[in-house]
Amino acid sequence: MATAPKHDPSLGSGKGWVFRATDVTKIYGEDVVANDGISLSVEPGEVFGLLGPNGAGKSTLVKQIIGLLAPDSGSITLGSHDLVADPGVARQLCSYLPQAQMPIDSFRSREAIELTGLIRGGDRPEVRRRAGELIEALDIQEWERSTGQQLSGGVKRLVGFAMVACIPGRVVILDEPTNDVDPLRRRLLWDQIRVLGDSGVAVFLVTHNVLEAEKSVDRLAIIDRGKLIAQGTPSSLKADDRARMRLQVMLVPGSDTPELPAFVQDHARVSHNLLTVVGEADASHAIRWAQGLMDAGIAEEYALGATSLEDVYIRLTGDQSEEPLAASGGA
Amino acid sequence: MAALDAEFKIRRGLSYWWDGYTRMVRWEFIDIRGIAVFAIVIQLVIGALFVLGVGLFFDDIPLRSAQYLTTGSFVVCLITVAMVAAPQIIAAQKMSQQYEYRWSLPVPRSAATLAWFTVALAIGLPGALVALVVGAIRYGVTYDVSAMIVPAVFAGLLTAGLIGYAMAHTLKPMVAQLTATALLFVVLGFAPINFPPENLPGWLATLNLWLPFYPMAVVVRSALLPGEAGNVAQSYLVLGAWAIGCGAAVIWAIGRRK
After folding, report:
1. A180 C-beta neighbours (distance < 10 Å), count
2. pLDDT tens profile B200-255
3. What number of other Cβ atoms are within 10 A of residue B175's Cβ?
4. Residue A27 CB neighbour total at 10 angstroms
5. Partners of residue B10 in chain A, C-beta under 8 Å
6. Which of A80, A199, A294, B140 is the most buried (most CB within 10 A)?
7. At the top level of CATH, which class does the domain A9-236 belong to?
8. Is A243-306 a CATH 3.30.70 domain?
9. B27: nearest CA in chain A?
């Protein structure tokens, strides 16, 4: 079911303002550079993904947008508003779902959503209507009257999203919104994120779940060790990998990485999962090689497919999404 | 600026402040809903038992001691909430990362802070009043309540609250919790709240003139007991200085972004 915040002419036109971070640098203590000259912009109606491994500096950037931290240099603006100079305005213009769970243990779900809507400046009938719509759209009616401490982590996450989306700011910042959410409701949540964007809100989505982000964002940036290392649409980022394919070989647990043939252009090993990149022209060789590994008892199975955003991500950051395991060699 | 504000529907001014305040009062009430009744009952029990318990130190409590005990307990109850429980709760919020979310809400920080105090006062006041009632019944203490009780309670609570709030916002959470606990013993044992300052060594009595605890007791007592003067004007000045100092620390701490 498609639901949307009431159409606001100044919001929904999708014109006239841009959220912009310019050369944002944040240094903790003497020399820990959490953000290093980050520049990006998000337009109204756009779902923008910020991807990066743990500790890359994603949450630090978000906290500077909402005014919880101040950058050491650089600017953050929304239209003509300077969000760094006026954090009070930043809090009105941006709504924020933090990575940690919402502090709503004593709140009933609907109560938390409605009160947040009122705090965000919504009027009572509008807030009630929106809360009802979101509860239905996220399929959490069953827990409408449950208190936060009775909710599972995933449902609490969905209530948190509804709190943020009830009366959204111009920019909605979602820090890992799908954490703990079951696969079915994840889809409902992604639908609602898209609906938010379509209503004219700029959605700023922080995640390390590359596979989900690939399907849902309009544009994205990849951040690693505080630096922005790539930015563009998912397909533009995959452009370099267009003539390449991904061969994934599941090795027998405990076995060594086999010797790689010359046509393997890139590889990474995560646990017993060997990820390799091969040219399209070498696809048949790759299948024969993988089949040989299985015949020799080194591999259990393999899969050959088009490269995904995850391959780009691994190539750029040397990290595997959702699996904080060390990649050996490769990328 | 006004055109820009209108374009983005930026809210400012008194009605924005008031809406934020009333909604945050509701937020804070809901937040402690599960333990509110328990917390109030505990405060009532502390208020009553403290007055009765300390009376057991005496075979036959003299009237002046009883007066000090009951009015002092009134002050101690308010201090317990504003200066001890409040920083401990904020420290717990900080440790569970709730604190950041609260500060990301679009509410003026002064409104959010005052909302928090409103709820703390609602929890603490019944216990403080019970101390006075129990003192009257058990020891026959009579009160001559003057209108000055309003500024006295306000000044005492504001100062105690700002000290507690400054501790909570400037110290590391664990340090704030331990300091708040330690402060309770200082207040009970070494500040002439429940006993006259003459009972202390001279230097400690003098020191207490400049610390905030004794002046809180002086201003409250002078508004409750007939013929009880003390140095009320100086006490208000000392409380004012502490409130301003801690208020500045609070404004710095909650306005600061690391």
Report:
1. 14
2. 999 999 999 999 999 999 999 999 987 776 789 999 999 999 999 998 998 888 77
3. 12
4. 15
5. 81, 89, 92-93
6. A199
7. alpha beta
8. yes
9. A115
